Task: inverse folding
């Protein structure tokens, strides 16, 4: 199933290398998408709540969230997302370097939709991004409002 309109994706990631790889993978995606990037937890919440410089952004249909962020970590961001009625239905994919069982359990308990450990090499990272695209942008029906 292919979505008829562009999918808005918010990536909350402070690592420029991971951002670049995600951008490259999403450029090749079969589904039209717009990948927006924010680099810390405070900026992420301002974006999602459409505050300040983000007053005119579109609400994302999918969030890719790193756990290890400056200013406010990903766990706090996830907790706040899932406490706001207008944001709660947005799927959140945890995309992080942490393999810690406590992080996996905690994020699922906070409402994460899936947990992916970022590969360290280029080819596997692209494979993961393409897998996210294949599942979340072509198989899953996302809430588009």
Result:
């Amino acid at each position: 199933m292919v979505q008829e309109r562009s999918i808005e994706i918010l990536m909350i990631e402070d690592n420029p290398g991971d951002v670049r790889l995600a951008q490259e993978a999403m450029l090749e995606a079969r589904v039209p998408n717009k990948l927006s990037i924010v680099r810390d937890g405070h900026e992420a919440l301002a974006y999602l709540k459409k505050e300040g410089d983000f007053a005119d952004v579109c609400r994302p249909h999918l969030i890719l969230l790193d756990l290890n962020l400056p200013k406010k970590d990903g766990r706090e961001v996830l907790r706040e997302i899932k406490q706001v009625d207008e944001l709660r239905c947005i799927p959140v994919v945890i995309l992080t370097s942490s393999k810690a069982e406590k992080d996996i359990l905690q994020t699922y308990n906070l409402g994460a939709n899936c947990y992916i450990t970022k590969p360290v090499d280029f080819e596997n990272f692209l494979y993961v991004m393409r897998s996210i695209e294949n599942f979340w942008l072509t198989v899953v029906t996302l809430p588009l409002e």
